[in-house]
Target: MtN3 and saliva related transmembrane protein
Amino acid sequence: MELHEIIGFVAGFGTTFAAAPDLLAMLKRRSSRGMNPTMAGIMGTFQIVWVYYGVLIDSMPVIVWNIIAVVINFLVVGAFFYFVRNEKIVREAKR
Model:
């Protein structure tokens, strides 16, 4: 592996896992409270474009980190809507 690829892997690590604290907090709380899925959805969508760009320029760091980031961001969106649905069911059951 060349030096520029190593630097790419190190640099990608931070941005890739930027959404992980939100996902972990939501899972720990088991609530969508305080979360907005828009940012994660936008980031995940454009990271798909980054994956394609990584394929075009044949850059493994760009491809790998952005695939992981896509998964994390779409897990944030999925967890948000899962908890919103559950919270709605609980509210309706209390009526």
Notes: DSSP finds four helices and no strands in the chain. The chain has a mean pLDDT of 89.
